[in-house]
Write a structure and sequence with these properties.
Two copies of one chain form a homodimer. Chain A is 70% helix and 0% strand. The first copy, chain A, has 201 residues and is an all-alpha fold. Chain A folds into two domains: 6-54, Homeodomain-like (Arc Repressor Mutant, subunit A), CATH 1.10.10; 62-199, Orthogonal Bundle (Tetracycline Repressor, domain 2), CATH 1.10.357. In chain A, helix 8 crosses helix 9 (157-177) and helix 9 (157-177) runs antiparallel to helix 10. The longest helix of chain A has 24 residues, at 6-29. Chains A and B meet through helix 7, helix 9 and helix 10 of A and helix 7, helix 9 and helix 10 of B. The structure holds a DNA duplex (30 and 30 nucleotides).
Chain lengths: 201, 201
DNA sequence: TAATTTAAGTGACCACAGTATTTGACTTTG
DNA sequence: CAAAGTCAAATACTGTGGTCACTTAAATTA
């Protein structure tokens, strides 16, 4: 943590205001109907200042999306010990989908998922970062499942974990491209239990 | 088929030229490095004319992408009769991934998949159109598998087909967001066989 | 064949994300 | 404390996808 000078504090304050105002406007009007100018103006700051703190308009949503890691940690503590690895994964995914749907919202997820695809991201997007908490959580469940003889050992822990998280991304992608009748919680459960079945002995 | 007047013929010729020139330039320089103006200019036509024939820049790639339906038809004819439904699906997917990778290319697929997510598509994108040949092909394989007692009947034919095509979209999404070392053919096989395992009795 | 309708094509224009350059207040250094 | 350096912020600008009002030539109708 660098020493906090007056200037740095003020900059941090600006960033925070931009972030909160951006989220609020996106929520109210939808991502595509909000301009960077509008966010800046509402913060009494220039557009240039926005780009001091964020690389793209998407970054507002990306930043918020990372909150999900906190969700993971708090969720993991409340999970029962006496259920199978599969059940843990299903519980975890179900809670996560409810969180995405009700807390973050489809508009945010759409934009995070779109942004992750864009070529102009030089480094890997957070979504594909193997150090994400998500991968650690799933990995530990899978490991447990293999140790308990619940899952077969055809695939490595890492390979199985990738497939399980791919289930999630695939379902979320479908949630975005299919119409309103798509029930992301139910579809996630259906898809993931089938994959887990395929991994079982 | 409407009667072909001189004018309609000329318009069709313009559209064809725009399409071919667009594809050529996208292939040569990458989608993001080609402007609509550039395509139009190379066809000796104004940018406005481009938008008479296409709704968005993406449409060039979308149109080409639809060629994949022809691929499906020709592929289906050469498939052996005496293998299981699962094997047919795996063969089909493998051939399709090779086609995507080597014929259409990742840049095209990225843009089709991105475009499908955008909110401004009023109707469903082609990718999510249930009348696509893809869904018919997979549906027939699944039906066969259920009739042969290869797959369990927990899920309806439609539900199982959706899951199987979701495997494909999920893998392609990962192909796009993960780095260069991602082997789309191998990953597709791994993911799909696990799902098929989960569907088997 | 003359009048009317249709639609392909034009080109100036707009909106808006992102960039390059400059400014000046704050911080660091000697 | 003064000079030098830094960096948040401002401003003007660019590039590009897409739009709109209009033109013009071909097609249709009378």
């Amino acid at each position: 943590m660098p020493r906090m000078t007056t200037r740095k504090l003020k900059a941090l304050e600006t960033k925070k205001t931009l972030l909160e105002t951006g989220l609020e406007l996106f929520h109210k009007k939808g991502f595509d109907n909000v301009t960077v100018d509008e966010i800046a103006k509402k913060c009494n700051v220039s557009k240039g200042a926005f780009y001091v703190h964020f690389n793209t308009k998407y970054d507002i949503f990306n930043e918020k999306f990372k909150d999900i890691d906190n969700f993971y940690s708090t969720f993991q503590q409340g999970i029962p010990k006496n259920i199978s690895a599969s059940e843990k994964i299903l519980m975890f995914y179900k809670a996560q989908m409810i969180y995405l749907r009700d807390e973050l919202g489809k508009d945010l997820i759409r934009n995070v998922y779109m942004n992750a695809m864009s070529l102009t991201i030089n480094k890997n997007h957070y979504l594909a970062d193997p150090d994400r908490n998500l991968y650690k959580v799933i990995n530990s469940f899978v490991q447990e499942g293999i140790e308990n003889n619940e899952f077969k050992e055809e695939l490595t822990t890492e390979e199985a974990s990738v497939l399980i998280t791919r289930c999630m991304r695939g379902t979320i992608y479908d949630w975005i491209i299919f119409g309103e009748e798509f029930d992301v919680v139910q579809e996630m459960t259906k898809f993931t239990s089938t994959i887990l079945n395929g991994l079982k002995k």
